[in-house]
Design brief:
- With about 230 residues, the chain is of the alpha/beta class.
- The strands form 3 sheets. Strands 2-1-3-4-5 form a 5-stranded parallel β-sheet, sandwiched between helices. A 3-stranded antiparallel β-sheet has the order 6-7-8, covered by helices on one side. A 3-stranded antiparallel β-sheet has the order 9-11-10.
- The chain starts with a strand and ends in an 11-residue tail after the last strand.
- The chain is about 40% helix and about 20% strand.
- It has helices at about 10-20, 35-40, 60-70, 85-95, 105-120, 155-165, 175-180, 190-205; strands spanning about 5, 25-30, 50, 75-80, 95-100, 135, 140-145, 150, 170, 210-215, 220.
Amino acid sequence: MPTILVVGGDDVERRRFSDVFGGNGFLTIQVDGPEAADAVMGQQAVDLVVLDERSFGARAYSFCRSSAVSGRAPVILLSGTSDTISQIVALEVGADEVIAADVDCRLLLARARAMLRRSRVQGPAPRPRGEGRWSLDPQTHIATGPDGGQVELARHQARLMQFFLDRPGTVVTTTLIANEDAAFRMEPTAFRTAISRLRRRLAQIDGAEFVRIVRGSGYVHLAAPLRGAAAN
């Protein structure tokens, strides 16, 4: 039975989410803050964390970051803002998904189930994956470039990079990636920002671009990038 840790400062909200998960076959644990969540996760296995960031601000982001670095359970962050940049920052510091805090409980349940399915599919200690001269270690989130340079990515960036690595030479649209991974269901402007940040991060490894823009269509990963080609 998967264990879901519900973290929030409001007793009513914690009970609301816990009742939904508990009524659908999950074991739930309620705590009132990130520090209490850390204590629980140090004592027992947790499969998923649902964290309401409205009461905690920077403490919620710090929890997401430490969870991502240590490889602990994935985190669904319930956000009190619809600001695109804030949501991107949350994903980049370590949240696996950002959802509005007033989400319908049925949708939250569906997202939780999808995330748990992805976690089971990934399995333990996967080997570095990649096509051509780029590769990514899915556990450490360390990307290796064409010339052997390495850089550590945020968990959200690693998921985005892996999506392209699995589809070399295929034009990827925002619709395709949103259908495959709920974390990337975002406005086109926000998605372009996420792509741009990933490209800049990988440019620290090597000048050969990882993703090219296909005007009017989407993005394509070049497994063997052309040297000297100007970025679109």
